[in-house]
User: What shape does this take?
Amino acid sequence: MKKILSAILISAVLTGSVFAKGFNEATGEARSSEIQEPSHNKKPTNKASSSSSDGSCGDACIDSCAETMAVLLVAGWAVFNVGVSYTDFPYQRFTPNYVVNGPLSKVEGDTAPAGTGKKMRFSADASILHYKDLGWGAELNFEGLFFPVIGPYLSLTNFRDETVKQDPEFFGNFRLGGQLSLIQHDLLCASFLMQWSHWYGDTKWVHNGCVIGVDLRSYPIYPLTVQWRGTYGSYNDDIFIATSDLQAGIIYKRIEGFAGWKYMSTGNHKTNRDKSHWNGYYGGVRVYF
Assistant: This one.
C-alpha cells in the first residue's frame, strides 16, 4: 500500500512539473495555437453562424456607443474650454467670478470689448517655503492659457538642506513645460501638466527627468481662492520625486496673498526602497494679468 501511494505521489509531482506554466507563457501558447489552427479543421454549423452574427451585431452596437461617448466627451470638453473667456482678474465682478462661459456685459475697467472676455490669462507667484527636518527655500511659478486651451507652466524651486550641520547643501529644481486645460469653471479649473525637470546645485543622485501632474483651482466666493497641485517626477536610476501643494488665498484686485501646506517624497518607483518624505508650509503673493 505504501509503495502504491509513493508511486502516485511521485507521478503527480512529475506531471505537475511538466505541465506547470506561467500565465504569459500559457496564454501566449493558447493564442498561438488558436491563430495557427488550420481552417479546414473547423466545421462551421448553423449555431456557430448564428453566434457569429450575434457577435457582429454586438460589436457594432459597442462601436456605435463608443463613438457616441467620444463625441459627447469632446463636445463637453469644447464647451468648458474652447468657448470660455476670462475677466481681467478673479472677482473683478461677482458673476462670473473669473471664468466666463457665456456672454459678458461690459463694466468699467474692462479691457476686452463688450460681450466678450479675455481669451488668454496668466499668473505669476513667488513664495517662501519651509520643509520640516530639511530647511528653508523659495519658489517661483509662471503659468497661463492661450485660446484658452494650452499654455506655459514654469517653476523654479531652491532650498537648503540644513540637516548637514557643518556645511548645508543647496538644491535647485527648474521645471519647463506646459499645461492642457481639462475643464474651466469658477468652481473648478483643472489642467494636466507636463514638464522637463532639471536639478542642480549639490545634487549627486538626480539630474534630468520628466514631470507630470494636475493643477486644480477654484474661485468659490469673494475673496477666496483654493488651489491644489500634485506632481510626479521620474528620473535616472528609477528615482521618483512626488510633490503635493494645497493652498488657500485671499484676493484684492489683481493681487492674491496665499498660504498652504507642502509635501515632498522621494524613493525608487520599482522597489519603493529608501522612501523619504517631508512636510512643510509656504506663503507668498500671486499676480493675475
Helices lie at 2-19, 23-36, 46-79. The CA atoms of residues 177 and 195 lie 4 Å apart.
